[in-house]
Amino acid sequence: MPSIVTNGINTHYEIYGSGPALLLVSGLGGTAAYWAPQIEAFAAHFTVVTYDQRGAGTTDHPDEPYSIAQLADDLQALIAGLQLERPLLIGHSTGGAIGQVLAAREPQLLAGMVQYASWSKSDAHFNWCFRMRRALLEGSPLEEYVHGSALFLYPPEHVRDHAEALSPALLASVARFPARQTILRRIDAIMAHDASAQLWKIQIPTLVLCAQDDILTPPYQSRLLADAIHGSELKIVARGGHSFSETEPQAFNRIALDFLAGCTLAAIDASIN
Hints:
Elements: E1 3-6, E2 9-16, E3 21-25, H1 36-43, E4 47-51, H2 68-81, E5 88-92, H3 94-105, E6 112-116, H4 124-139, H5 142-153, H6 156-174, H7 180-191, E7 206-211, H8 219-228, E8 233-237, H9 244-247, H10 249-272
Parallel strand pairs: 3-4, 3-5, 5-6, 6-7, 7-8
Antiparallel strand pairs: 1-2, 2-4
């Protein structure tokens, strides 16, 4: 995985395919690997860029507090460093929060955005979920933390039907985990996120997408986002949980590609006119 210095850290990234640039920005885990079910389908139409965020994967893990604004600075530096011209962005959960900050403060930087299973401001439900995840992280073996976190990510039916494959994959991920303090700092960053007063500044085509059975960022969070982002499109699918792109990849890929194709055509029309 190549690396580039962005905002004072070494950021590891991958590039696939060709065509208009598309950034895939993952959630709390922060790694490029989250998007494995999307790469082949998306790279057939776009230059797909994935990366490990600050404090995640093989990118640097500075020993300091983190914030969503800082993660947005990192992404903006990556866009500049890779010379991406008005990329599209799909942001999952924390990645969506990063996209909110970036699109609000830099209106011309992105060509379009998918806010997937995201939120604009923490509330009691969100905080209770992460209170439990923090408690698991601080007081239990990492093996218990990853299994407990999975209950927030996947629908009950998915866990029931895929437990034999899912559990070994979760256990294998423990070996790649950053220090507990780094994960806690990333949790602190998302719990402090509040872009609710800035969403009106977002002027790019935006799809707000979530699953009806997402218990971590329930559909009401997506409705709040869609209501606040002018001209955005809201789509709520029946099932898939917080990790809809992983549990129902074909459905997710179809929805996202349809939306991104429209953004690409709109960008071409704008350049002509």
